[in-house]
Amino acid sequence: MSTVTAPSRPGTSRRRGAPNALAYVALYLLSFIIVVPLLWMLLTSFKTDFDAISSPASPIPNPFTTEAYGTLATGNLPILRWFANSVIAATAQTLIILVTASAAAYALARLEFWGKKIVFSAIIATLLVPGVIFLIPNYLIVDNFGWLDTLWAVIIPGSAGAFGVFFLRQFFIGLPGEIEEAARVDGAGDFRIFWQIILPLSRPALATLAVLSFLTNWNDFIWPIYVLLSPENLTLQPGLSVLQGTYSTHFGIVMAGAVIASVPVLILFTLAQKQIVESVAASGVKG
Length: 287
Description:
The chain has helices at 10-44, 49-52, 67-74, 79-110, 116-126, 135-144, 152-155, 162-173, 177-185, 190-201, 203-218, 222-227, 236-240, 251-286. It is mostly helical and 287 residues long.
């Protein structure tokens, strides 16, 4: 028996297309708002000091010069050392967070033990406490361990955060339990299931957590100032603040430092954007 499809009304496609067009316009405007400051920062880094503060301001460097980058490379400031310190600290803390958060999240999501809900509630409760409250206790702990003025001081204190545990736990809960049950029938233990099944299925979530953890450490400004005492041991963010003088500021040099600080972030997002999109899509399906 054949079915007859009712013809669509002429105005239906127009009504559907209008919201899509508005959505694209909003996305283009949002992209413009985000990209313009980054482009202005990049162009200003190729200006002279006089051109950077000239009025009316022009986005095009006149003349075009790489003097700011040369000053950073050959000057007295150890910016390459700051850059290396930031890369080491952010990478090390990210790796530790992935290990600790994934193990804790697996236990809270897939295992049964007494007091699991109490432990999870206590972890979530720490998210409600402002981070500045932990400033003095963490400083005293770092001092007692003898880690002041070392990279350990900016790696260890934030390497067991509650957000990573909560984020991965929610993702682990949404994974299908049939694969885990089949593995247990084949004699696999908890660690083998965690290592060979749960983690490979959770690559999008792990990549998203890695990006967020790296950015948190990379952009940290307050804590390194407290625990890194020597100028050569600073990370990039507090180190770049030295470029801004008390009575005068070389905006070309400041913007060149900001561009250097932005490069690893842009590379990280470019490499991990597919995994991040998959993680968001999977979370939307489960939600």
